[in-house]
Design goal:
Layout: H1 17-44, H2 63-72, E1 77-91, E2 97-102, E3 109-110, E4 115-120, H3 122-171, H4 177-223, E5 226-228, E6 233-238, E7 245-246, E8 258-273, H5 274-277, E9 285-290, E10 297-301, E11 304-305, E12 315-323, E13 334-339
Antiparallel strand pairs: 1-8, 1-13, 2-4, 2-7, 3-6, 4-5, 6-8, 8-12, 9-10, 9-13, 11-12
Length: 358
């Protein structure tokens, strides 16, 4: 039985056997040539059996470590600044009246408690005088009440002795019931008088206390007639003259009489951009350079920071306190502040796999 196979779609070309062998040898040679550089490069890679294994970086560093790294990487920041007085205050009138004295003018150095001006209020002075007279009157009334009470107590003692004697006589049949009743009535009246005297003394003491309180209140108001300095400083504004009629300061009328500033120590205000605010801390070195031909630089440190970013300017307020013994630093001066750590020398990093030659 004969088997018939279907004809091939593409006839196979027959090649001589020696040509197939040559082709296989060429393919093998090309594969070997491509593998040789890879094996050689692998053999030339330096082996480091003694090298320490690589430590993975911590996933969540602690906040303290972040703060230390941040302070070490903090770059110098140069920002404009303004010098202001340590204390600034406006002095107002507490009471209305006429200015009788103006004791100081702008530029004068004053001490705490020193009077800058005096305001006269005749009506208030008259009220204070009446209050002082009321105090004297209440004190005299109290003295009268005390003397009256002393007389009442003496009369009560006498009536008690008389009643005791009448009781003894009545027991011995030497006194009548009427005499005994009269003695008891007088003793009761004396007791009531003493109680009334005590009440009068209490009332007189209360009147004296009220009179003293009113007198002290008016005296305190009179003290406001003196415009005094709340601290040692320099008068920078005077807005009142002798003879002026001044009104007590209110929410709608707030014209000051004087302005006072403390200049023996000044504050330097600087606004640090948000990008550099994280590295600012109290105690950071700060160099304050004044604008002008001299270009004087004063060395200091950051005194306080706002610890908040201003949403309008995207800056943080930084304050530097500087001593000002000669008052050369004047409020309103512009300056330039340089903030930054002291420069530190850092050794370059060593290349891995190499040792220092000695």
């Amino acid at each position: 039985m004969t088997t018939h196979f279907p004809p091939r779609l593409f006839p196979i070309a027959r090649k001589p056997r020696h040509k197939q062998t040559a082709l296989a040898v060429a393919i093998a040679a090309s594969c070997i040539a491509s593998l040789v550089p890879i094996s050689v490069s692998s053999a030339q890679a330096p082996s480091a059996p003694d090298a320490a294994p690589t430590q993975p970086a911590p996933a969540n560093p602690s906040p303290k470590a972040q703060s230390d790294d941040r302070s070490q990487q903090f770059a110098t920041v140069v920002v404009p600044a303004t010098i202001q007085a340590f204390f600034v205050t406006d002095l107002y009138a507490k009471d209305s009246g006429y200015v009788s004295q103006v004791n100081h003018d702008i530029g004068d150095h004053v001490k705490m408690g020193q009077a800058l001006a005096v305001i006269e209020d005749p009506e208030l002075q008259a009220q204070s005088d009446r209050a002082q007279a009321a105090v004297q009157q209440a004190r005299a009334a109290l003295e009268v009440a005390k003397r009256q009470l002393a007389g009442m107590q003496a009369d009560l003692t006498l009536q008690q002795v008389t009643l005791k004697r009448q009781k003894e006589l009545f027991a011995g049949k030497a006194a009548t019931h009427q005499t005994l009743d009269e003695a008891q009535a007088k003793q009761s009246v004396s007791t009531a008088n003493v109680e009334t005297g005590n009440a009068k003394i209490a009332l007189a003491e209360a009147d004296l206390q009220a009179a003293n309180a009113e007198a002290k209140r008016l005296q305190a108001l009179l003290q406001y007639d003196k415009i005094v300095a709340p601290f040692d400083g320099v008068v920078t504004r005077r807005l009142v003259n002798p003879g002026d009629l001044v009104q007590a300061a209110t929410s709608t009328r707030t014209a000051p009489l004087f302005s006072l500033q403390k200049l023996d120590t000044v504050r330097v205000f600087a606004d640090v951009p948000e990008a550099s605010a994280a590295g600012i801390r109290p105690g950071l070195p700060a160099d304050v350079t004044l604008y002008g031909p001299a270009g004087v630089t004063v060395h200091g440190t950051v005194t306080r920071i706002a610890n908040a970013i201003d949403s309008a300017t995207r800056t943080m307020r930084v304050e530097i306190d500087l001593p000002n013994p000669g008052e050369k630093l004047l409020p309103g001066m512009y300056a330039q502040v340089t903030l930054g750590p002291e420069p530190q020398q850092v050794d370059p990093p060593k290349r891995p796999g190499k040792e220092d030659k000695t």
